[in-house]
Every structure is written in C-alpha cells, then in structure tokens.
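Page header: ASSEMBLY MODEL / two components / 1202 residues total.
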Amino acid sequence: MAAKNRRDFLKALGISGAALPFLGNLPVFGAPAKPRQRLVIFFSPNGVVPGTFWPEAQGPDFSFKESLSPFEPFKKQSLVLHGVCDKVRGDGDNHMRGIGCLLTGVELFPGNIQGGSHTPAGWSSGISIDQEIKNFLQKDPATKTRFGSLELGVLVPERADTWTRMSYTAPNKPVTPIGNPYQVFAKLYGKSKEREVLKSVLDDLQGDMRKISAKLPTEDKKILLEHADSVRALEKELQAEVKKQTHAEPKLEAGIREENENIPKITRMQLDLLVNSLVADFNRVATFQFTNSVGMARMNWLGISEGHHTLSHEPDSNGEAQGKLTKINKWYCEQIAYFAKRLSETPEPGGQGTLLDNTLIVWANELGKGNSHTLENIPFVLLGGLPGIKMGKSLKLPKVPHNRLLMSLAHGFGCRLEKFGNPEYCKEGPLSLT
Amino acid sequence: MNSKIPFFFPGLTTLVVLGAFTPLSLAAEITGKEIYLAKCATCHGPKGEGVKGKYAKKLNGALSISQLARVIQETMPEKDPGSLKLAEAEKIAGYIHSAFYFRGSRDANAEVRVELAHLTATQYQNAVADLIASFRTKETQDGPAGVQGEYFKGRNFNKGDKVLTRADPEIHFDFQINSPEPGKIDPYEFSIRWTGSLLPKETGIYDLVVRTDHAFRLWVNDEKNPLIDGWVKSGKETEFKSAIRLLGGRAYFLRLEFSKAKQGVNDSNKTPKPPVKPAFIKLYWKAPFGALEPIPSRNFLTKTNPEVFVLDTPFPPDDRSRGWERGVGFSSEWETAVREGALETAAYVTTRLEELAKAPNAAGDRKNKLRDFVKKLARVAFSSQWNPETDTRIDKIFQDNADGEMGVKKSLLLILMSPRFLYTRLPGADAKAQIASRLALGLWDSIPSPELLEKISTGPALDLKFLEATARQMMNDPRAKQKVMRFFHYLLNVEHIADIQKEKLSFPKFNDAVLADMRLSLDLFVDDVYFSPGSQFSELLLSRNLYLNSRLGDFLQTAVKPGAGFAKVPGDEFRSGIITHPYLLSVLAYPGESSPIHRGVFLARGMLGVGMNPPPEAVAPLAPDLHPSLSTRERVEMQTRPASCLTCHGIINPLGFTLEKYDAAGRFRREEKSKAINAQGSFVDRQGKAHNFSTPRELAQFISQSREAQEYFAENVFHHVTQQPLRAYGNETLQFLLPKEEGINMREIFIRAAVRDALGPVKTPQRN
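Prediction written out in full:
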C-alpha cells in the first residue's frame, strides 16, 4: 500500500504554494452551469437488528422503526433498500469481505490475513465505486475539484489491514481514511493558514534586510535590496489573496484526542469539516467510516459498556443485547441525520435548493446481521438526491447483487458503467430506482 | 573546470582587419607591448579584451610563449600573415602571455573581492538538517557494519519469543522451508526484526525494494511511519518498492520487520498443521549512479541513529559561471525555494515539538519551553549573526501570540528566511563566531555546531596552529568526507554522469552493475588515498592499485577471488592512479572506441589546468567503419590535421594518446585491429619545454611534479572549499596553500583553504 508520510502529505498539498488553488474552485468559464452532484457514503460496522431497522411497508407510505427514527424529518428524501445482497465470495471471512467488497463488488486477493473462519485473504482486487466516480468527475474540467474525494473516519485503528479499509483507488491500493480532525483541517486549510502566518512575518523580515544592507558595499547591498523588494512583492500578493477568500474556516475545539470517549466529539468535528469542504467545493465525493469492520466502539455515553462487536455476537434471544444494538445503530443514524440537517440548512452555492438536494448520502454496513454474519440484506439507506433515483420510499428487492446498486450510483453521475466489480453480478444492469 | 578561456586562433583566419598598419622600424628598443599596441590592439583591444565588430573575443589560452609566437608569426596580421619577423612575434607573445593571455595573469588588474553569497543548495539542505539535528542525539557512524537481527520463534516479536540476536551483513535470505536457527525456531512460523542505520554515499533519490513472500514493514528515516507497509500480503506480488530522498554521508534510522506467519486471527495451534511454506526476505536498493543490488554491508551500520531532516523543497542549481559552485546574486526562483524551504522546515519542527523542544502537549510551562527552544534554535542558525535583539524579537512574538505553537511557527519563518541565516558573508559582530561559521561552511558545507562555536570562542581563535588543528579534527566528520567526495567528482567531471553504454559485441559483460562498480571503485580509491596519513597528490596519480570486486575483476580480466567484495588489488603494469581508472576511461570514451580527444581534454583541462573552449563549430567524429584500416590514433590525427584544429588538438591529442592502451571500457589492451598500439604522447609546459611520455605512468609522474598541475589542484580546492575567488585573498595565498618544502598533502590543502578563508581576506599569515 502507499505509505502516507510527510512527503506524500506535502505532495498532496501541491508542490508550490503559489500555484495552489486553496480558496476553492474558481468558476469554469464557458462550461454549462450544471447543478453540482455529490456522493457521501457512510459506513458503520457489525450489522443491524433487522426487527428494529427495516420498515414493514413498501412504497411511499412506510414508517421508520426505532433504529432509523432519526431520519423522520427527511422521510421524503429517504430511500430504504431491503434485499440488496453482497454476493461476492472467495477468500476472507464475512467481516473482511463485508467491508472489502462493499464498495468494490469484487473478490479479495488471496493473502496472509486470517479471519475468524474461512481462508486468509489480502486486499480487494478492484477499485471502489467512490473512487471510480471521483475519477469520472475529476476527468471533466466542469466537475473537477481540488481533492475530488475525501476519505474520513472516526476511530479507525492505526492498523492497515482488510478490516480497516473500504475505499480502494485500484487493486491492492486501499485508501487510508483520515481519522484526525486536525489533520483534515490541515488538509483543507493548512496551506492558507500557513500563508497567513507567512504574511505576518514579512514586514519584519524586510526591515531586517534593509537594515543589514546598509552596512554592505554597494554591489552586495544591491542583492539584499533586491531580496527585500521581492519579499515586499510577496506580501502584497498574499494580501490580495486574503481579500479573495470566499468562506470562513471552521473553528475546532483544541486538544481532542482520538479516544473512544471522544467518538461523539470527533464525529461532530469531522462532519462539520466535511460540510465545509462541500460548501467550498473542495470535493464532491466522500466516504465516512465509523471505526472498522469488527469495530469495537464502547458507547458509554449511551450507557453501553460492552464493545460493539462483542455485543453483535449475542443471540436474538438476548433481548437486552438486541436493545443495546438498536441503540447503537440509532446513534449512528443520528449522526448521519445531523449531517443531513446541516446540508438541508445550507443553500446550494450558486444554485437551486439546498446542499442536501444535490447530495446523495448512502449509509451502508458490512453485514446484514451481526450474530449470523450474513451478507444478505445489507442495510443500504439513501438520503438526499441524485438524478435517476426517486426518494421517499421503502423498497423490498428480490435479493439483488449490490454491484447493481453501485452501478446505479455511477449512472446517477452520468458515469455509464456496464459492469462494476465482478461482472457475474452485473448482468441485469444498474438497479432501476426511478 | 577552470574558467572558460576562449581560444582566439581559429577565428583569426576569418578576421577582417580594418585600418592600415604603420610600418615600424625594428629598432631594438621597441618592446612587445609597443608592437602589440601598434599592430594588434586595433582588432584585439589594448588589453586583449576584444573589439566589437572586429575580433570580439578575449585573447587568452594555454599555449606556451614559443607556441604562441609561432602561431602569431604564421597567421598574423590577418591581412598579411607571415609579414612579422619571428623576433617580433616572440616579443608580442612574451608581452601578451604575461599581461593577459595566460590563466595566471588574466584580469590581473581587475578588482576581485570576496562577495556577499547566500547558502548554496547543498549548504541550505545541510544547514537545516544540522539545525534540527542539534536538538537530537548526536549521529554516530562508528561501529560494526551490517544490521542487527533479532530472531523470534513467534509471529509477532514478543519479547519472550526472542531466541537469537546477531549482526547480519546483509538482508538477503532465502530460508525455503527451513528455520533460520534449527532447533530453536520452528520453520512453520517465525519473525525477524532488523535494526540499524543506512549509510548512503550520494545525495539523491533512493529506490528501496523488498522482495518477500510474507508480511513485512520497512522504516527508513522515520521511526513511526513505515516507508513500505507490506504487512498485508495480497495476491501474488512479492516485490515492493518505494523511493526516498536522502542526503549522502549521513546515517539514517532503519528497521525491517519480517513475519513468516498468517496475520490477523491466530490459528497457528490448529492441528494438524498445514505443510511448511517456503519463505524469503531480501532488501535491495538502487542508489543514484548505482544498479539495483542487495544493500551491501558497508552501507549498513548495526547501531541506529536518530531521524535526519531531509528537505524536499527543490532549490534552483547554483551559479557555476566561474567554474565552481557559488551562491551569488539573487533570483526569484531562489527566493521561492527559500520561502517553501522555510515553510517545510517549520512544518516539520512544529509536528515534532514534543521530541525537539521536550515540550509535551499537556505540560503546564509548555509555552515557555517552546520559547526557549526557539531562542536556542536561533542561536545555532545565526551563529556569528546572532545578537541580543534576536531574543527580544522572539519574546515579542511569543507575547503577541497566545498559542505557543503559533509562536514557534512565526519565529521559525523569521529565522529561516532571515538574511542572517541565508547569507554567508555578512559583516559580523562576533569575530570568533565568524571564524567558526567559515570553517563549518568550508569543510562541512553547513552551519557550525554548538560544540564548534564553543571551541573556537574559548580557544586562541587567531592562532594558526589552533585553527589548523581544529580543521584537521573537523576533517574526520562525515560531512567533510562528503564534501571531499563531491570535490573529486567535480574535479574528475563525473558529477552528472547518467547513462554510459558500451557496444554489446565488443563489451558483452559491460552492464549497469559493472558501471556502478566502477564508480564505487573510483570513490573507494580516492577515499583511500585522500584519507591515508600522507594524503599524497602523487599517490592519487601514481598508485597502481585498483579497488575491485569479483565482478569488476572479471570484467577487467584482473584476478580476483570469485564472489569477493571490494578490496585493493594491484592493477596491470601500466595502471597509474586516477588517470587510468577504468571508470574515467569508460566515461571518456565512445560506446565502441576509446576517445583520445575526450581523455586529452580531461588531462589538459582537469589535471594540468589548461584552459580551452569547445571547438569553433561542432564536429562529428569520423566513423570508425569508414576507415576500417585506421587505428583510433590515426583517425583522430587525420581529422584534426588542419592548422585551425591543431592549436588546441596539438595539446589535446598527444595527452590523450598516452592512454590508448586502455579501451573504451578501461580494459588494458596491447593491440587495436591486430596492430600494436602506439601510445606515445607529449606535452609542452608553460616554459615551452617539451615532455615525452611512453606510458601513462610517465605522464602521471609529470603531472604529479608539475607546479602548474599542483597549483591548479590547490586553486580548485580553494574554490570548492570557500566558493570565493582565490585572488581576492592576495597573491601569497597560493604559496600558503602549497608550501614548497613538502610533498603535496591534499588534506592539508583543504584544511589550509578553510583556515585561510576563516581568517578573512586580510593579509595571508606567515607560517613559522
């Protein structure tokens, strides 16, 4: 995998600060004014409790159950998809395939990572749909953005393996989600912050140069004065840049460490940063990964002291455990609802409606149900809007391969894939969700 | 090389002389100067500076007076060549030779001074690396070569599983289905952790390659983030690569962890156990100028070292208009690099404050600690340019910023972009610190360490013996070794050699690996001679020894034990120091044929200090196929026969011919095209004396004893050390560098150059 170190980080920021468009995208002149379209995929682990998750009714007249109740305000912009199955088989246990094939729709490579059962496996053998759509958007100057996509996480372990990665730029190339909000901030605003600091010292610097130059012979003096003039020019350039800044940077609470107890705070920070990034049009695609496959969040703030994965193994007969699992999933749902709310309160910059109207949120899970480890009926809940997908419904689909849903997402962006992942599961084309 | 000295002769034949020549009586009292001013200055200018629209080029070159006189007599004046008497031509030649024509007399009256200079790219990179290193444990390059291997019987390096610790010369193991330590380690599952330091010689991009069929992680110069994370084995890939930029001559933290086991859920207690799988682990690199190879033992150190700050910001190349690298003038590209470099350095420091400033996030007095850290850093960065006002300014920044980290960032930018850090020839208040700064720049291409500053400031700083002793000690520092290596690469003109190819038919065994061996062989040889106690210039030219490994020995048909690594062995009877080194001979040759011209130019310009320009027009060498019966020597002689060529080639060819017993890849030969080789050569010195050579050794003897060559070498060293013109330090400086009474000790020349510069462009001190 690609090592993310200081060098990569700097390179990602661009080689020259002067050349960097750090204040958002400039309008592309001459390009048709198309509404922006966005995709944000959320991941939470360990399956759901079907009885408290899936609506009973099909069609527009459905009611949310406990786990999904936070979506109530957005019911008209929701689409609950029951019956979508991860049919990818091959190496790796269901957790590994649950996360590793969720967005790639293709088998894992054989490898050395041993799960709790089944054969050992490595990374996914294909690109994930978020990266596929990102590449599609980045190819076109009219939809190209500074980052294309952001991969964010909350309490993703400091360990790169099949259980901790879901986004892939290519076979064997997993993307490391950024779990540290300060690092996200540095990625979004670091360069502009840096230049602000730079600007603040330039005056002093020039003064020093002119002072020293006074002691030098004429020829040498000329060099230092030339240097001082160049610093002065830079100062002016930076002042002009500040005037162009289009939006305020978010303020982050300082010193929040990546610890279990801080999950709610970090989640909020990450979501706020993502909203900012979408407003600034830094990216149009994002993934947001809560912990990891087999994730062990301990939601003490809900009065739950057991780890999530441990709880998820409890049988259906353990009512208390199922109650806690319902609470856990409802908590994840609340976070996504918060994000949707923020989007719904933000007018689409330079366009119609709100950010939510032009953003499709997809919430998915590695498993259908924790204690059975099934890859059938993977919870897919959609929120917001994307052309070609009619919202405000609950659908019960006939055990369709999830590859078809991944294709529908791409088609919504105009990326007319004929297959994605293992072609075996793509034969019937994208799901019709109109 | 030496400054470009254009040759005027080829142009003379096309010159149109305007104005009439006044016939002069040949009275005995007429001097060369008078004849020159009367007959030549109209076109060449009163000081040989050239006349626009007539003959615009400067008159300078490398012919002896007698050679020069002959050329003048035969070709001048343009309108009426041959009209001057030989005696007249000799007078003119005698005059212009000492007035402006010859290198040593050039611009004799022009003002030369020590100029304001900024840090060169190399110096900037070293300075920021050393600035940060001054807050870390000191680097050490002493101790055994190889890497430290810890062998564990479990899969995950548990302390209790460790069964063996040993030094491994290389990481190049194919265990197959066996155990690395039978009886103690089960071949089914084991893990190994290698630690130590990586010792790269050249600055540049290194490709690191791990080949393995199991889990591994490789860390280089970063203890936290792996350079390559191959813990997840996925698919059939068994080769993993990554690139990293390293500064040559420093030691870098290295760790490689290898685990032959399944990762994830531990199912190793399953019965029955599956059959044992094979395992291999190998660590390679491709260094700049190198071939892909297992990292050799000599580039490993079993001791670990702290991280080194390697700047990524590219700097524009430094000025070389005078032949040596110097940080002169101002350009906006340089200013941009300085700014980006400062930002990169500040970002590096602010993300490591806990380590560098010993200021943990939670510490109550963190802000004070950070401020003190920055003050200390400013002292190291500014050295002689530091003054109490620096502290006052830092105090103010920390007062104005509630956030300590912001204080660090702003202060760092101010320090790193300050002229006090960037420029090297500012008048300084602290004379002793200035001496330390100049010594450090001269010998290390870096800022003085706090220890050096301390030593100079408490010692008798103006005492020559004390300074020379200090410089002698500084010579043992790896940074000095690096600077010496760079000097020889520059002197031998091999700094930027990229792609040397040889014809497959004639040189079937020549490949990238042989070429890399040759370069290393040259480095080892130069290093050995230079750092030997005598450090003799003559040894550099006369030693018959070559550093060979078995591959290079095989290529050169010199007996070396199969599989042997590099060792010093006697070469063939004609080998004589650097001028016959196979690397140089290969570089100075065509893919199939030797090139007496390239070799001759190198000997004339690089060794003897003869200045010359490229030919007036590009000339393609005659194709050997068109003259199948001619030897290389005959072909070269045929092509350069015209008089306009011979002014330069009369010097070049006879030098180059001396090396004709070495083919295009530096192999010894007696015959070419079944004809015995004629390797007779010659050279006419400054005094007009002709010297003949029948072997390379005779030529090397001549060079090693030639005052011209010795002075040229010393002058080059001085420029490389100080980046300032020798002449700005007074006429006695050359004698100071090269006292006549002893053999030429190269290391002492370096030391004297640095010391002479450290004392400033005042009067050269007298040695007692």
